[in-house]
């Protein structure tokens, strides 16, 4: 009876699931079509804006503020467009000189960059040569007081006569406009919808009873785990999702135009209800034929076999480092006490493990912050000393040059509080640092860069190259007494990022290298930058990095850093 009921249940379940998945994919496709219609409408209105004769003439002059009367007429036209097409939240127009003006329906977000060319999407917009691109929340270049997300529609404005670039147009579309794409769809059986951008960040979502639910939050986290699986290699499909003791089926489809992903989340409970009638009718026949055997088997398994098997399954799960509590406590007194004691033991072990992990994370963050904080004053003191010397000698131009380089260096090093920056940003900091040193030691050294463009956007721990460059300058070339060369290289190979700093200075002996690479810090001033960098890399990458020093007295020094170039989870786990 049990075997037959299981087979029947599984067959009915798979049949119903297939039908539900096909219907869900059709719903997802309808949402995708509605979103495309929305974006096409925005694209059409953007063409109307771009082809405006007043705007074309004002942009050809190179300054949006050259004629305020024309600018006022343009704003009136834009305001009319926003009233006609209310899903446009705000419009920004920038000229080639970096000037811009904006217009909003309710809240006009502030453009926080000093120049539109500093926006992370500017180069791509220029490369697309008039084709539009979409970015969630403007990639962080807008500061808005309004709640919810918005999608920035970005395209370059070209001259209608000779197609030369004239400026940039940005149209911000609020989240509510994309929510309308599924607002008119039937919401049966607690279905939920979500739209994620090309980086799997949530654009908008609709829960079973309106608003965003915890299930959608859990789904977005699950997507990050599935990036390397078949999810990222297919354009549509479905997968199971479990959350708070409930199971769901997630149907998804990737839009090949935008790279967005559209989701439909269906509770599996609805599948059970749809097939319950068929299963119940069959079970009635099975119960009539096997009632005596069923009752006796039920009594024995409930009081003896099931509790034992449940306890054994829970205990076996510990072999795979999973501490599972027993959710059902049997009525039998002996087994009940055993289950309660086992659950209490699991709770105590989990609390102990959590406390240990929290303590280790606190220690690790404190070590990393302390080591990073020591590097910045080390460079700042030397730079301020150089600026003081130049000021006393009356070399004001060089003082200004060094102060500008120092400001740019610290702007990059602060990097909005981020721990990770790109290789391109790290190289820019080194360029600013060497520019400062070049003013001070004008004829002491030359610099050569060999940076592979494929690795410019690879994320790395910030401030790892500058201490190495400083060591080459102060302890390699300056001690040589003649002009030297510093070479900086970066490249990708076999999933690893290779960073190298070399010089043709005085070099080091094997004993000096051994003192530097020793893990214990003995306080040598000459190797502080190297040791600090080694320790920061070891802590942040969990020891999954290499720090190699090759040097010979009189022949210079080469320091190579090898770190994983994959996702952060690659070295965290």
Could you give the topology of this structure?
Elements: H1 2-50, H2 53-60, H3 68-84, E1 90-95, E2 100-104, E3 110-111, H4 122-127, E4 133-136, E5 142-143, E6 150-158, E7 165-174, H5 175-183, E8 192-196, E9 202-206, H6 214-225, E10 236-243, E11 246-254, E12 261-267, H7 269-316, H8 333-392, H9 396-414, E13 420-422, H10 423-440, E14 445-451, E15 459-461, H11 466-477, E16 484-493, E17 496-503, H12 510-517, H13 528-540, E18 546-552, E19 556-564, H14 568-572
Parallel strand pairs: 14-16
Antiparallel strand pairs: 1-2, 1-7, 3-5, 4-6, 6-7, 8-9, 8-12, 10-11, 11-12, 13-15, 16-17, 17-19, 18-19
Helix pairs in contact: 1-5, 1-7, 8-9, 8-13, 9-10, 11-13
Extract low-pLDDT stretches.
520-527
Shape: flat
Q: Between the first and last Cα atoms, what is the distance in angstroms? A: 46 Å
Counting helices, strands and paired strands, the structural category is alpha+beta
| Rg estimate, integer Å | 32 Å
Strand order of the biggest β-sheet: 2-1-7-6-4
- Percentage of residues in strands: 15-25%
Number of strands: 19
Largest sheet: 5 strands, antiparallel
Overall mean confidence score, pLDDT: 80
Helix count from the secondary structure assignment: 14
């Amino acid at each position: 009876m049990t075997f037959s009921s299981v087979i029947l249940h599984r067959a009915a379940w798979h049949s119903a699931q297939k039908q539900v998945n096909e219907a869900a994919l059709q719903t997802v496709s309808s949402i995708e079509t509605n979103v495309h219609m929305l974006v096409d409408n925005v694209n059409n209105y953007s063409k109307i804006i771009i082809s405006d004769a007043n705007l074309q003439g004002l942009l050809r002059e190179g300054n949006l503020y050259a004629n305020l009367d024309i600018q006022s007429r343009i704003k009136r036209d834009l305001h009319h467009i926003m009233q006609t097409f209310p899903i446009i939240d705000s419009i920004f127009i920038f000229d080639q000189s970096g000037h811009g003006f904006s217009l909003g329906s309710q809240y006009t977000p502030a453009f926080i960059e000093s120049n539109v060319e500093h926006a992370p999407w500017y180069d791509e917009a220029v490369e697309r040569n008039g084709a539009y691109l979409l970015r969630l929340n403007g990639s962080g270049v807008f500061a808005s007081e309004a709640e919810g997300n918005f999608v920035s529609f970005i395209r370059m404005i070209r001259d209608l006569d000779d197609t030369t670039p004239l400026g940039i147009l940005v149209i911000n579309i609020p989240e509510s406009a994309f929510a309308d794409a599924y607002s008119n769809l039937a919401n049966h059986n607690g279905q939920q919808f979500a739209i994620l951008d090309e980086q799997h960040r949530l654009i908008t979502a609709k829960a079973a009873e309106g608003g965003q639910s915890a299930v959608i939050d859990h789904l977005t986290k699950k997507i990050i785990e599935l990036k390397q699986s078949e999810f990222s290699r297919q354009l549509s499909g479905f997968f199971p999702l479990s959350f708070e003791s409930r199971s769901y089926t997630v149907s998804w489809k990737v839009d090949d135009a935008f790279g967005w992903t559209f989701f439909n989340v269906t509770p599996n409970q609805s599948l059970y209800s749809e097939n319950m009638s068929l299963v119940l009718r069959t079970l009635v026949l099975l119960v009539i034929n096997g009632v005596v055997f069923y009752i006796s088997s039920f009594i024995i398994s409930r009081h003896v076999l099931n509790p034992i098997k449940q306890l054994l399954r829970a205990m076996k799960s510990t072999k795979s480092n999973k501490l599972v509590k027993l959710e059902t406590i049997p009525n039998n007194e002996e087994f009940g006490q055993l289950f309660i004691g086992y659950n209490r033991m699991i709770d105590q072990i989990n609390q102990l493990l959590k406390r240990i992990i929290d303590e280790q994370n606190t220690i690790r963050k404190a070590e990393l912050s302390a080591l990073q904080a020591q590097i910045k004053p080390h460079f700042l003191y030397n730079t301020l000393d150089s600026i003081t010397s130049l000021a006393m000698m009356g070399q004001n131009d060089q003082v200004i040059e060094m102060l500008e380089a120092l400001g740019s260096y610290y702007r990059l090093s602060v990097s909005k509080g981020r721990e990770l920056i790109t290789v391109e940003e790290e190289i820019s900091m080194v360029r600013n640092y060497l520019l400062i040193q070049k003013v001070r030691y004008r004829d002491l050294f030359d610099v050569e860069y060999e940076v592979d463009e494929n690795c410019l956007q690879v994320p790395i721990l910030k401030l790892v190259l500058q201490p190495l460059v400083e060591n080459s300058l102060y302890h390699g070339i300056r001690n040589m007494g003649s002009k030297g060369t510093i070479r900086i290289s970066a490249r990708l190979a076999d999933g690893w990022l290779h960073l190298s700093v070399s010089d043709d200075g005085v070099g080091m002996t094997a004993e000096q290298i051994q003192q530097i690479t020793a893990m214990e810090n003995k306080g040598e001033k000459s190797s502080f930058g190297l040791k600090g960098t080694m320790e920061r890399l070891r802590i942040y990458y969990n020891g999954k990095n290499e720090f190699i020093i090759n040097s010979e007295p009189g022949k210079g020094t080469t320091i190579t850093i090898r770190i994983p170039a994959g996702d952060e989870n690659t070295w965290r786990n």
